[in-house]
User: What shape does this take?
Amino acid sequence: MSTCQQVARPLVRCLRQAGPGAATCSTRSVAVAAVRPFSSTPMRKDEGATTTTTPSADSTTTTPPPPPPSATEAKSPGILQQDRAAKIAQIVKETEKIKLLEARDASEFEGGEAAKQTRIKSLRNYVEELKILADINDPEVKRRFEDGRGDMTKPVYRFLAERRWRSMDYKIIAQRISQFHVVPDLLPSFDPSMDVKLSFRGYQVSPGAILDSRVTEVAPTLRMQVFDKGERLLTVVVIDSDVPDVDHDRFSRRCHFLASNIPWDPSKTVLSLRSVGDRVEGDVGKPWLPPFAQKGSPYHRLNVFVLEQKAGAKIDGETLRKHLENRENFSLKGFREKFDLEPVGFNLFRSEWDEGTAEVMERHGIPGAEIEFKRQKFASLKPPRKARGWEAKRQKPKYKSLWKYVKRIA
Amino acid sequence: MHLAQLRQPLTRAAANSCHSVCRLPTTHSSVSATALLSEQFAHLRIGPTSSNVAVEGRRYASVKAQGAYKLTAKKTIPKKLGAKKTGDQYVIPGNIIYKQRGTLWHPGENTIMGRDHTIHAAVAGYVKYYRDPARHPDRQYIGVVFNRNDKLPYRQDAPRKRKLGLVAVPRKVEDVEKPTMSASGLPLWVTRTESIEIPPPAAPAAAAATAGKAVKGKGARVTASGAAAVPASSSTISATSNNGGNSVIAELIKEKLAARAEYNARQSALRKLQQQKMLARRGTRVLRLMNNYSYRETNWEIGRLIGDPGSVPGTEKIGSRKAKFRARRRRRNTFLLGIKERKLAKADRREEYRRRVREKREQRLVQRKEFLAKQSQAKKARETKEGGAAPKAEDKKEMKAEKPAAPKVEAAPKKVEEKKVEKPKAPEAKKESKPAAAAEKPKAEEKKKDSKTTDKKE
Assistant: This one.
């Protein structure tokens, strides 16, 4: 095939398709494309006669009912609709099966109660999968999700959201966890399972960015998205893992923020740390302390951890305060063990000494701005060398006569 | 070779001498003597002996063979590669631990690899040579540990062992004053404020004057500024309002007009102030001394004149999908907000109207009461004059008191009836909408099912 043929190929194919009979169809699609130039998702109408209107699981609540389908459309349900109907039938079947299983006695199973529970659990997982599969092909669902109007209480949208998060954001966070040594330093092992994004003063910051101390003076806003259903209580901790400790010649940790018992579910997205305990429900263990890095200290990693509390287990505010008498030497591992928490979300930013740090520290009454860190100096391992050279030679008493011409060196 | 050639005359000479010495024995004995001598000479022989006969046929090199190939080149500089510190030896930061070509050893814990693959210590501690199969199966590493007894590699899930390696000293506060003059004695920047002729607020003043003239006949003061003129005009209106007619409404209208005029005046004043500020900002230019001794505005300052400093002109994506969404949302929100505000305003107005009506009714009731009281008093006066007609008047009073209550009772059932009459319409409407929804029904059922199942699970 010559180059010009190659070039003309799509055009030729298009013309061939839009031959006699199909001309009207092509013009319509062109018109539709003109009306909606900025969407990558096909509209329902674009699907053509093969698919009739397939309302997604949530269309009843949010959109007005679609116009009545014509007689021909009503007669022949499209592929998508058929598939959906099959999936729903399957769901009904499986739920009935689960009910039957639950009704049966555990002794009937070979492995006893445990086997029964695993069987039920696997069936439930299958039902969840079917729920996703029933709606995943609906263009309306895809469109709604892309427009950010997906209802996160529905499994399909949660699935789509998780898939999107895993595609890039998760990878970045996982990389930050390993390359900033968050994993051995703060936790022995950790794999995040929810999306946490940081924004200061309305601006989202990329994970691991070095931020100005004046920007981080106010508490950030977290954009959090969980991908599993149900309500749960969350704890948010911000830890500085690089606090210089000169007395012990080591780095210690400091808690910059801690709040517990924050109710959260998939439909919630934004949590302003400033409003916790005020407009948002939750117990503040430690209010926001602006991160600061004294001059000369290497960058401080400010780790934002979101921990999930055990189902229904509220942390008592008084015990929390007692546990956190001091911000210094905060151990995430110990905190986690004491209150039985599971780390689920993570984000990170860094802070360094800058022009605004001294002011910020003064404004918040933080001591230590007048200190600067310098490199520790080590004495050389080599023995001191004798002075050499013309002058050094003539320092000896042998050359006493020349001393008036020689520069005296120590 | 020479020795071999020499040997024959020597043996000959020796044989002759021997012959001369031992003439007495027989010839036989002389032969045995020569054999003995040759044996003795064999001991004296320097050349190849019977012991290394195999090398007898050796060929000698015909080219230069004086160890030229074996000798190392003496002109190269020794590279002095290899380990400079042994295991467990104490090092300080920067010490060379190993010099190498390529990476025979890799940098491990607390070590740095230099440009030529030399391995240096990064901290003060003890050198350890080790392997780390978790990091790489074949590589060998050099590390430095803080405690001599530590073993490398460390456990992977344990926190890293780090030392601060810093000392705290008082911070030097650098109070660097920005120089205002360059080295050549020229000011580094010049601020130029353009004197912009802001036109005096002539037009509004004239309008106010005309307005003043219009109401002058009714006793208004003529004021200079439009904003100050407004209250004066309102006062004039209130002064003239007691003429009669529907006085309350007229007053309300006038109040409203006054408020509107005041608002407009305030808005225009604000706008003017903003304009002035903007002009001042645009007029003020900071010219900075450039390298070529010219004064010029910086590019960013020029760019700032175009828009607000937050957005860099030309960087925003205009045609992006998200931008379109944002714009649409903003438009819709403003539209909805407008509707809301209008509704609220309308509700306020209605409330206001109702309040006024209520007040009026109360007034009327009071008036009527007064009127009735007057009448009754008059009647009483008349009856006292006539005598004995008092009870009748009391009855009438009671009747009147009851009357307003009665129609209310009657009105309530009427309303109910009306509702009843209206009700049958609704099902019809539903019927009409049903066939449209009929096609939807199966889907709706599915939905229900789905929602049921989801409800159970959620």
